[in-house]
Amino acid sequence: KVDHDVCSNYGNWLYSAGIGNDPRDNRKFNMIKQGLDYDGNGDYVRLWVPELQGIKGADIHTPWALSSAALSQVGVTLGETYPRPVVTAPEWSRHIPQRPGGSPHPRGRRGPAQAPAQHKDRGIDFYFSRKKDA
């Protein structure tokens, strides 16, 4: 099924872009949470992103959080067969399961997300804040 309600989609895209009136400050669209809420098993992502088809379950929403060994098993190499994230938001970390050694845990133990090295101290707030000297 393809979701195509033109008015609703345009409105949602504008809302997620931060355009329009909203009394809430620092409103952010959390892609990881939305993916888990509306595509928990990752079937929609698997349909449209064939590079990730081998990743089982909800892990498909955060492939950069998987170990190199897990990615290698499904033929994914970050930066080669699938891009590395440009930025990871601190808010995503509570939706990314972690094992004690830092690799993801399929049962849902929570921990901090690993940001790409070039953006380690820059969450999504850096890119979308009004103050650029932060």
Can you give a write-up of this model?
It is a single chain. This protein is mainly α and 134 residues long. It has a domain at 28-97: DNA Cyclobutane Dipyrimidine Photolyase, subunit A, domain 3. Helices cover 27% and strands 0% of the residues. It has 5 helices and no strands. It has helices spanning 6-16, 31-38, 43-48, 68-73, 124-128. The radius of gyration is 16 Å and the shape is globular.
| Count of β-strands | 0
Structural class per helix/strand content? Answer: mainly alpha
Fourth-tier CATH superfamily name of the domain at 28-97: DNA Cyclobutane Dipyrimidine Photolyase, subunit A, domain 3
| Sheet with most strands | none
- Helix fraction, binned, reads 25-40%
Q: From the structure provided, what is the oligomeric state, counting identical versus distinct chains? A: single chain
The first-to-last residue Cα distance is 43 Å
CATH topology of the domain at 28-97: DNA Cyclobutane Dipyrimidine Photolyase, subunit A, domain 3
Radius of gyration: 16 Å
Counted by DSSP, the helix tally is: 5
Low-confidence stretches: 99-120
Instruction: Give helix and strand order, one letter per element, not per position.
Output: HHHHH
CATH class descriptor name of the domain at 28-97: Mainly Alpha
The dominant shape is: globular
Pfam families: FAD_binding_7
Organism: Edolisoma coerulescens
Protein name: CRYD protein
Region (Disordered): 88-134
